[in-house]
TrEMBL record:
Catalytic reaction equation(s): H2O2 + AH2 = A + 2 H2O; Fe(III)-heme b-[protein] + nitric oxide + H2O = Fe(II)-heme b-[protein] + nitrite + 2 H(+)
SUPFAM superfamilies: Globin-like
Keyword Chloroplast applies: no
Record-given protein name: Myoglobin
Main location: cytoplasm
Residues annotated as transmembrane: none
GO molecular function: heme binding; metal ion binding; oxidoreductase activity; oxygen binding; oxygen carrier activity
Short name of any one Pfam family annotated for the protein: Globin
Source species: Scomber scombrus (Atlantic mackerel)
Gene3D superfamilies linked: 6.10.140.2100, 6.10.140.2110
Function: Monomeric heme protein which primary function is to store oxygen and facilitate its diffusion within muscle tissues. Reversibly binds oxygen through a pentacoordinated heme iron and enables its timely and efficient release as needed during periods of heightened demand. Depending on the oxidative conditions of tissues and cells, and in addition to its ability to bind oxygen, it also has a nitrite reductase activity whereby it regulates the production of bioactive nitric oxide.
GO CC terms in record: extracellular exosome; sarcoplasm
Family in the record: Belongs to the globin family.
Assembly behavior: Monomeric.
């Protein structure tokens, strides 16, 4: 699908700085949607002011973005990537689907600022994430998780 390539065109700056951009995504997710911080027991009690310098937040932000990079590069053939992700997020971490929609909008904004993601790229990223989230949701339903 053309949307995957349209986002990959802007992925270079993200890939070059997974830790910082990943930190920014999570820090902003927690600022704009404070309830999402509670989904991460490891991050309980970290205040907004301490997040930018927090290595654990950077490391997990990098993990999230690397996984999204894999999804982009799979260009739609991502069933084998989505399955274990859905399993862990549904069964272990108990992450409702709506959280993926929230993080999508944060990534759109952060990529706009840090990677120059333009209007067409933003639409493409929303489309790609829509496909990814629908596939996560299908797995959630199979697992009987009403996320
Ligand atoms: O599932 C895993 O590996 C296949 C475990 C590591 C991992 C987690 C954990 C990965 C690769 C991802 N997340 C990827 C990912 C891509 C996007 C769409 N995540 Zn994830 N997550 C993990 C997202 C989105 C997303 C939104 C939210 C609220 N994720 C979360 C939450 C979440 C949590 C709580 C964990 C457990 C690990 C942890 O707490 O690390 C600090």
């Amino acid at each position: 699908m053309a949307d995957f390539d349209a986002v990959l065109k802007f992925w270079g700056p993200v890939e070059a700085d997974y830790d910082n951009i990943g930190n920014m995504v999570l820090t902003r997710l927690f600022a704009e949607h404070p309830d999402t911080q509670k989904l991460f027991p490891k991050f309980a009690g970290i205040g907004q002011g301490d997040m930018a310098g927090n290595a654990a937040i950077s490391a997990h932000g990098a993990t999230v973005l690397k996984k999204l990079g894999e999804v982009l590069k799979a260009k739609g053939n991502h069933a084998s990537i989505v399955k274990p992700l859905a399993n862990s997020h549904a069964t272990k971490h108990k992450i409702a689907i709506n959280n993926f929609k929230l993080i999508t909008e944060i990534i759109v904004k952060v990529m706009q600022e840090k990677a120059g993601l333009d209007a067409a790229g933003q639409t493409a990223l929303r489309n790609v994430m829509g496909v990814f989230i629908a596939d996560m949701d299908a797995n959630y339903k199979e697992l009987g998780f009403s996320g």
